[in-house]
Amino acid sequence: MQKISASVLIVLYIIILMLTAYSCGVVFTYPKKYETEIAKVCAEFEISIPTFYALINTESSFDPSAKSPAGAIGLTQVLPSTAEYICVKNNLDYTQFDLYNPNDNLYIGAMYLRYLLDKFDATYTALAAYNAGETVVRTWLNDERYSYDKISLYNIPYKETAKYVDKIKNGEKIYREFYKLK
């Protein structure tokens, strides 16, 4: 009887260790930082919180000092020219924003994502535009090789953009299920 009890305890211990390792891995790979700031901009711009977390994680891994080779800056990896454009569209003074400041960057990134969500009828199409550019995505939507309905993309010709959208989809799922975000 004691052998069975010891075996059961060992199995339970292994299960607990595996669950702990899984949880630690998720928390490390899919962090939940800037909770207050993200909740605020997502509410203001009516953006899905899990989608925005997944976008930030995909873009910068939550590094506020990130800078891409193309010149995109901060948590949401916004190009200065894009930030200026979106500020002008919203009657804001671009010079009042610092893209390395997490609050400013989250605000600009959310405002830009909202702009794209309003331009495109499908979330993942808007996210493809966030990565590849609005003009490129419009071209894809008008090409039957990539879109049947001119709304969503069933095939994304840029491998980087296809991987980007898939990573956000996977991230959304983890943020929804693991963190119970809506």
Question: How would you describe what is shown here?
Answer:
- The protein is an all-alpha fold and 182 residues long.
- The protein has 2 domains: 1-30; 34-177, Orthogonal Bundle (Lysozyme), CATH 1.10.530.10.
- The protein contains 8 helices and no strands.
- The chain has helices spanning 2-29, 35-45, 49-60, 80-89, 102-119, 123-132, 134-141, 159-177.
- α2 (35-45) packs parallel to α5 (102-119).
- The radius of gyration is 20 Å and the shape is globular.
- It starts with a helix and ends in a 5-residue tail after the last helix.
- Residues 17-21 have low confidence and may be disordered.
Largest sheet geometry: none
SSE ordering: HHHHHHHH
User: What is the general shape?
Assistant: globular
- Helix amount, in percent? 55-70%
Number of domains: 2
Distance between the termini: 47 Å
Number of helices: 8
Question: Which topology of the largest domain does CATH recognise?
Answer: Lysozyme
